[in-house]
Amino acid sequence: MEGYYCKSCKGWHPRFYGSDYCPLQKQFKLFQTKDINVSFSGASPPDIFVGKWGYPNVFSGILSPVGHDENSKGMSDPEEWFKNKLSSDDILLRRSSLVYSRFENSIKNPNSKLNDVMQEVSMASKACDVEFNLKKAPKIRVNTSVVTNPLGNVAPLRKAKISGNVKVAKKVDYFVDDHHLKAENAIVDLHKFGFSVSSMIKLLSSGLLGIKKQRKLVPSRWSTTAVDDMVSKNLLKKVKEYNWINDFYVFSDEYLGNHYEILLLPRSWSFEVIESKVGVDKYWQDSEINFKRKKYASDVTGAYYANRLAVVEFLNKIKKQASVIFFREIKDYEVPLGIGILREVSRNAFTQRVRRFNNLKEALEDMQSRLKTHISKYTARSNVIEEYKKQSSLREFIL
User: Fold this and answer.
1) How, if at all, do strands 3-6 and 39-44 pair?
2) b/e burial code for range 75-86 (CB count within 10 A of at least 16 → b)
3) In whole numbers, what is the pLDDT of the chain averaged over residues?
4) Structure confidence at residue 151 (pLDDT)
5) Rounded to two decimals, what is the model's pTM?
6) Residues 6 or more apart in contact with residue 389 via CB below 8 angstroms
7) Scanning 14, 57, 172, 227, which has the fewest C-beta atoms within 10 Å of its C-beta?
8) Which range among 19-28, 109-118, 125-134, 312-321 shows the weakest confidence by mean pLDDT?
9) For residues 261 and 307, is the Cβ–Cβ distance under 8 A?
10) Residue 216 in contact with residue 108, Cβ under 8 Å?
11) DSSP state string for 134-189
């Protein structure tokens, strides 16, 4: 993954190039003035994180502010960030106020006491009070990722204890107690019942879902993609049975420097994501043409699966099938804030008024009116458009 290590915040800024500018510096300085004791109590949003370095021996832990914040949920869930249209600074300020109290853990044989507390937090539907005892004060820093939410202020955890009652949704309790149901089936059912993607990611990461003997911790980066992938693949089974849309559909939306133009073509299911950064002649691209994706989308990474979930939710809702291209133009997205942001802006695009066109040329011209990059830069490399033109030529030849 391209990016650079920042000496200012001691964090990694993915998809950025060497620079003296630190997009986290403002929040870093604000939090640096806070005095944190090794023992404190806080209301976890709820939020947890399972790392991947050193797998199968990893670090995992609980995120919590020092003290009790009435808006703790807004510190954790991208769904809340988007709903309230928070700025990048607001999101980073909230994330930088969380302490990541972590401990060494094993994927298949987890640390029993601390892991039990982490799992209880993962199941909570509302903020839960936790008493923390750290081995030493946190390192004041924030790391960003193109997949997971910003994570900072790491501290080694000695003890943790939940104080008070933890509120758990009945359906969550049911699926956690079901030791005969596969994790994928549990995730699909939770989605049907309207649970947020963020809540499902925490449950999967904590090793709370699936057949008893197969349960294990899942690094948060992997569980994020896994949830998007499992839900979208299940919905696709139905989508592929529907009739094609009749026209060319265009949707668009923008949030925090991420501009999306989404094109739906009247053809059988195919999917593609092409990303570009304004001012830099650099593109990221992954696609699936007339086949199930078997390899990880290593170029676009987690955004690919988040975008796919958004569109198959929409197609399933209108009971139609289409070939789909996501054009993402990155303008002033200074700090990657995780995949959740991209999932929510993509979902929201499909709540906007659809623009309908009779042909591909008109649809592309409409998209060009809102893009800074010339549309030909995208279409020239699009596998979906190439396949569409081949099919159109074949149909004309046959007819």
Assistant:
1) unpaired
2) bbbbbbbbeeeb
3) 89
4) 76
5) 0.91
6) none
7) 57
8) 19-28
9) no
10) yes
11) ESSPPEEEEE--SSSPPEEEEEEEEEEEE-SPPPB-HHHHHHHH-SSS-HHHHHHH
Q: How confident is the model over 84-105, as pLDDT tens digits?
A: 999 988 888 888 888 999 999 9
3-state secondary structure of 319: coil
Query: What pLDDT score was predicted for residue 397?
Result: 41
* Residue 15 scores a pLDDT above 60: no
Can you read off the two tokens belonging to residue 72? 């703790």
CA nearest neighbour of 130 among 174, 208, 67: 67
Buried b / exposed e along 322-335 (16+ C-beta atoms within 10 A)? bbbbbbbbbeebbb
Cα–Cα distance for residue pair 399/396, rounded to 1 Å: 5
Task: Look up residue 243 and give its DSSP letter.
Answer: P
Please give the sequence-ordered ranges of beta strands (E in DSSP) within the chain, or none if there are none.
3-6, 11-14, 39-44, 48-50, 57-65, 98-106, 128-134, 139-143, 151-162, 248-255, 258-265, 270-277, 280-289, 323-330, 355-357
Residue-level pLDDT at 360 = 98
What letter represents residue 252's amino acid?
Answer: S
Cβ atoms within 10 Å of 229's Cβ, excluding its own: 21
C-alpha 272/C-alpha 323 separation (Å) is 9
Q: Give the mean model confidence (pLDDT) for residues 254-269.
A: 97
Torsion of CA 397, 248, 288, 147, to 10 degrees: 160
Q: Hey, what are 66's tokens?
A: 């020092």
Residue that has been written with the tokens 């011209």 in this structure: 365
Question: Mean pLDDT across the stretch 291-317?
Answer: 95
β-pair type (98-106, 151-162): parallel
Question: Does 307 score more than 80 pLDDT?
Answer: yes
- Of the pLDDT bands very low, low, confident and very high (cuts 50, 70, 90), residue 148 is confident
SS3 track for 25-69:
HHHHHHHHCCCCCCEEEEEECCCEEECCCCCCEEEEEEEEECECC
For residue 112, what are its two tokens? 């029993």
According to the model, what pLDDT value does residue 26 have? 56
